Amino acid sequence: MGIAQGRTVAVTGAGRGLGRAHALAFAAEGARVVVNDLGVGPDGAPGERRGPAARVVAEIRALGGEAVAHAGDIATAGGASSLVECALSTFGGLDTLVNNAGFLRDRMLVNLDEDDWDAVLRVHLTGHFLPLRYAAAHWRAEAKAGRPVAARVVNTSSGAGLLGSAGQGGYSAAKAGILGLTLVAAAELERYGVQVNAIAPAARTRMTREAFARTMAAPEDGGFDAMAPENVSPLVVWLGSDASAGVTGRVFEVEGGRITVMEGWRPGPTADRGARWTPAEAGEAATGLLSSAEAPLPVYGAR
């Protein structure tokens, strides 16, 4: 009996990397898993379509678990709604949604074209919003019908969303947007029995192993592999289970064996004159406030 026993969990982008690790970890803890993956390349180019999801389903079934593949595009209304319907028609319910799908098209801002910007925001940000929107509609209907709901959503942000990352303007903007979406969803859906949290993981995936090859490399001596995606999944499973009752609207950074609760924007040094400033006065006040404020953490990759 695992901590996810009897729950139905949908994981997007679960054909490889973090999503695959999450799907296998949920299954190991007793969950029935909807394995979503569109089968695209690391940059979103068309790929195998049904292959990656089907392989993860086969892995789960070989270990005695229950799983079904879903190859819909969760950044479309049809694909996102069919993900929820797949869980309902196959397993009779949906208890946990893990939003994880994404890809990269890295460019410096002066070289970033509109199509790449739109594609990255679409898969990461819209690809979080739409599954969440359709899952939330189902859970709200259940709550209004008097049926108890103990639903969980785990969204996937990034250190790039927390601090920014040079060469990843679109990705950083999308991942920061996911944090805002998480906070709003947690506030709006709590009344229906839904908890919404986010993680900012660091792990070796198709999106990171080439861009950060040295950092992401597995240790040659066979020691603890801090960048293995499987290190992130235990927290995701806990957040997606009944055991996390009362935890919502939180962001966790996860890397190797380290878990950090991230604390977001809070008021710092303040000056209030009770009247309008002149530009010179506003500048003088801002300069004084900055002298007593904490310096921001550096953007990843900044020189």
Give me the number of helical elements: 9
Query: What share of residues is helical?
Result: 25-40%
Structural class assignment: alpha/beta
Q: Work out the radius of gyration.
A: 21 Å
CATH class: Alpha Beta
**CATH H-level name... which superfamily?**
NAD(P)-binding Rossmann-like Domain
Approximate shape = globular
What is the ordering of alpha helices and beta strands? EHEHEHEHEHHEHHEEH
| Overall structural domain count | 1
Classify the fold: give the CATH topology: Rossmann fold
Explain how this protein is built.
With 303 residues, the chain is of the alpha/beta class. It has one domain (8-262): Rossmann fold. The protein contains nine helices and eight strands. It has helices at residues 17-28, 51-62, 77-91, 114-144, 159-163, 169-189, 213-216, 233-239, 279-292, and strands at residues 8-11, 32-36, 66-70, 96-98, 151-156, 194-202, 251-255, 258-262. Strands 3-2-1-4-5-6-7-8 form an eight-stranded mixed sheet, with helices on both faces. Helix 3 (77-91) runs parallel beside helix 4. The longest helix has 31 residues, at 114-144. The model has no long low-confidence stretch (mean pLDDT 93).
Distinctive features:
alpha/beta; 8-stranded mixed beta sheet; 8 strands
Short description:
By secondary structure, the chain is α/β, with parallel strands linked by helices.
Topology of this protein?
Layout: E1 8-11, H1 17-28, E2 32-36, H2 51-62, E3 66-70, H3 77-91, E4 96-98, H4 114-144, E5 151-156, H5 159-163, H6 169-189, E6 194-202, H7 213-216, H8 233-239, E7 251-255, E8 258-262, H9 279-292
Parallel strand pairs: 1-2, 1-4, 2-3, 4-5, 5-6, 6-7
Antiparallel strand pairs: 7-8
